[in-house]
Structures
1.
Amino acid sequence: MSESASPAMDIRLMNAASAVLFSVFALLLLVSATRWVARLAAFDIQGITVRGDMAHNNIPSMRANVLPRVRGTFFTTELLPVRQAYESMPWVRQAVVRRDFPNRLRVELQEHQAVAYWGAEGDSRLLNSFGEVFDANIDEVEPNTLPRLAGPAGQGPLVWDMYQTLLITLNRAGMELVHVELSPRGNWRIGLESGAHLELGGGDKAAVLKRTERFLQTLPAVAQRYGRNAASLEYADLRYEQAYALRLRGVTTLAAVTPK
């Protein structure tokens, strides 16, 4: 019985081997055909459709920057270098690149929305609405319309959030916030349009906001005691537990939070 089964086993092995060889041959043929089709001139990239934000970049400048990175056909062009070329341009925050059959690329651009200058006075960096720091031509920003924010590296989102929080509170008090700075030690300092500066101390947003609101509530009464008003504020230090140091035009004192 084993002698008769052996030829049958050999036949099955030969058939299996033939099937494997045929499959490998068919696969190699398919790969070769795919490569041949992918390189046909009909699939050469003929153009790029750009949509989205283009307020600070024009089509000719983008074309000059990007076209040298476009190599190959619809199937073989690498999209990463194309995306990087767009994102290397000023004001471009993000570029999404897709293939558009049969021979084009499609790009969606998102530009930075500048909300503040970033860094020390004279620094040309900007901050976008995501709290990200970026470099661009500040001459394209309308002068004196943006606040100046500053802080340690990577703290842009935190500083931007604090600015928005304090802006509402100070506006209700008739004060215009133009500067917010976070020190490396975690202390907050702000500047007003009037030229006044306030040391707000450290802590989380809720603690800083509480001190600031308490100061603003008592400031008019304290200033009135010295024949001044809130607009005469030059400097305040809120880093005390239950008091603040205050300087008005022509007056310097240490006032309790709740005036007697």
2.
Amino acid sequence: MLAIENGAVGYGRRVLITGINVAIAPKDVIFLSGANGSGKSTLAKTLLGVLPLLAGSRHSTFQNLAYVPQQTQFTVHYPFTVADLVLQGLPPLWPWAPRPKRQEQMQRALAILQHLGLEQKSGLLLRELSGGELQRALIARALVTEPDFLLLDEPFSNLDRSGRSGVAEILKRYAQKGGTILVVDHSDAIDKTFYRRFWEIDNGTLRELC
């Protein structure tokens, strides 16, 4: 369970959303929409505990929360391979870490890439990927941590139909295994039949749609 009571979110002295009273239960699949600049990403990072509440309280019993950022906030110009990116999701190893431990982490990264259909791309640089492949790689970095709560910020933006379908299928499989999901995106992003709850930010208020 993750809950915010009598909350307010924003950054600096600017308050974006007030009067927040929400609770996310295990296995919830939630879609959050709102206009650009309404505070969607700020609320998402506050739910994760990355940003502090400006007012109210936050409580969470989830053990492992994972975040998939917007592609526009992620640079592909660093000389990382796809496998390097996924390994970032695992605890860092000291240079003197034993070889079996390094092999174990690589096997774990390659297993999740295979699960997401990216095993043949593991050695490619990030800039060599399509938009859909990069989005799947970012999701792989999150899923390799085996999270019980997964939050994705605009995972369908700038993807073609095939890319959106691939990402949606990954999320469906994760939900079928009992995962909890919050997707932040625009209201016309995807087929909403997959979601069980819908939130909307409107004029500084977060409300749940029926």
3.
Amino acid sequence: MKAKKTLIPLAALKILSVLSVLFVVIALSACATRKKVLTQQPVVREKASSPEQEEPFVVVEEMPMFPGGDSTLHAFISKNIKYPESAKTNKIQGKVIVRFCVTSIGGVDRISVLRGVNPELDAEAARVIASLPAFKPGKQGGKPVPVWFMVPIDFSLK
């Protein structure tokens, strides 16, 4: 009977100690989290001095539009592509994916080849993209902003 009487207070003491340790851990983590939140400074993005320095958006409320739409864009590219002769003789074909930025004024810059086929075909694709006329710029919050744009250009021999 004496053993049972000592076990109950011992079990209660163990539970009480575990609960107190748990309480201290939760209180400390809450204080640490609160301290982090209170000490963090708000992130302020500096405005770029020119449209070229702004980081382009990937998705916006109103995407840039080529005059006449996507079908006109693809027609322009097809009309202006000049298949390099050495690529023709070597029967090089494939799809070049070009990424470029449509600026806030509608111009094209920051041209890069995301997936190339051959250096000559890649260069030709970049040349044609550089010759594109102005787009209607993309808009975010009603204001024109720079936007990334991707176009696949298919080089195939007939």
4.
Amino acid sequence: MINIDKAYYLKDLELAVLLSMKGMDELYGFRMKQVRNPKTEDVYEALFALSKRGLLTFREEERNGSDRKRITIEPDLDAMLEIITEAKHVLIYSSERGDHPSRCIYLGKRAVFVSTQGTDGIVNRVSACRIETLPEMICECGFQPDELAGGSDAVPGESTDGGCDGAGNILPDMIREDAITDRLKWISVTDKQCVRQYLLIRDGLYEYCAVTDHDGRHIESCLSNRIAELLRKDLSSVFSDTVF
């Protein structure tokens, strides 16, 4: 069981080393800036730093008459890394608003968030939440309109009491690229493609969420204050054994 109150701050190389220890040879969702062909001494330095923080433990084991070192990862961190390496679905959040950092959300028994921290973007915050609370967490992390942004929380062409009930009256050419403030991509790791996108749109006086398929065709829309409801519906179709 993962302790969802914990968060870990890892440099790019530290996270890369840990994931390689878990057998991950291809990373989905975010780019690491300083891990291409790392020097051996840099890898040893990362291992030492992780050990010093108690995230790695080196133990002597005797096998076949010889002593060997066994490396173990701190249990909660190990469980989060397990989800990252085994995830079949990844949500990638990006924003045009500078105070909302990019995040990758790996979906498994829990949802694991990996978000970049700081201006240099080489430190990653790794944390977890329950799948059933994920829609609200996504909104809290930035995928919702700023409270002080103003504007009308309504979809052009729809009544204000409408919800996530189909394609609505928004035409594909009405979704202007420059009106998109935030983007949440649902990636299938198995198929290595984007399944759908959730777009937070501020178009003049209107703020709303639109959903497109992997080809960019519009599927449906909803009021921005019902984004969590939309995400919950889509997540429940994939994680049918989870109570939402």
